[in-house]
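Our consortium's second objective concerns turning raw sequence data into structural hypotheses that experimental partners can test. To show how far this objective has progressed, the report includes one record in full. It was chosen at random from the queue rather than selected for favorable results. The single chain below, 389 residues long, was entered without modification.
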Amino acid sequence: MIHKKNKNYFKIALINLVILYTLLYLIELGINFKKNKLFKNKRLYYLNTLQDKNPENKIYLNFGVYKLLDKKQKILPLSGYENSTIILCLDEYNQPVIFSSDNYGFNNSINENNDFLLIGDSYVQGMCVHNKDNLNSQFKKFSHNTNSLGVGGNGPLLELATFKEYKNQYDYNNIILFITPSNDYLDLSKEIKNEILLNYLNNKNFNQNLKDEDNKKLKILILNSFFGNKTKRFFNDVFSVYHFNLKSLVNSIEDLIKNKKISKINYDYLYDKKLDKFFIKILDEFISTLRNEEKKFYVVFNSVSPDILYPKSENAKKLKNLLLNEKLEILKDFLKSKEISYFDFNQYIINKYNEDNISNIFKKIDGRWDHYTERGFYEITKQIHINLF
């Protein structure tokens, strides 16, 4: 009798779980339909599909160095797979953006006699536009040859390390460092915990010698270990494409909680004066290194995202003020004291655009503000050409 009763309880619980999951799944479908994301393919789908079509040409996902910062490794790779086909991202049309990496894993077609070497994060790497519209291509429209050492997720210290490690492998006259206020301070707060990266800042002669053949082989082993079997997770891909994992619903709940809890405590790192000192020390290291080499140093401040540019709440307004009027002013004052030319794209956008037409500059992917549009990349390059050179 007790066994039968327990069996009935189990059936009732199971039915309730099925009903609950069905309701949540319907909400998930509604969210994705509204965001125009319903049953769209993921990067793994394109990776495996393209690989099946090109079995002789190994294809990889883009790699972000920041994902290894908390790992204990003999070396810290500072770029992705070299001389390979890389899926960088999926654009607003759910199509893959693909590039061929150069000899050192960066998104370049090697030029001789480059006017500038571009240093930065995902904006410099080309998220999420095809190569004909990224910064390297845009600069060519203004008769400037460039190569870039951009990697998505890089912050100031990773950018310094990448520059020091690979600067001698590229032919260039001067450099442009792109600073992204929206995330560079958070990135830096994590980077300063990595001992290898700190060596690039504290030891002028430090170098991992990642160009060495043995280290190149070790780098491949580390990257292969990181990706593991992720690229073969067929069921994971199916669950994502058909939304069985309820990811959008979970993200929506997280966004709702975050929006209600935007407060000083969420941005504690922005109140850490130590980060300002590290940031300035990094800039000073760039300056001194380039002066020794008799090359010029320019700085460009990327725009913060439209969510910050056009805040909806008092706390969001405080964040905008903290980033644009306090944090950037500290960096600008330092650059002025060193007679370094800079351009702030934030001020240009504030003067020229508004909430109604900002989509000309920033694109939305999966319902969220992403990187610049093709026009945005052209506009920032044009303004750099006008204001800095």
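The partners drew two points from this record. The chain has two domains: 1-34, 43-388. Residues 104 and 211 are 8 Å apart (CA to CA). Both points have been shared with the crystallography group to help prioritize constructs.
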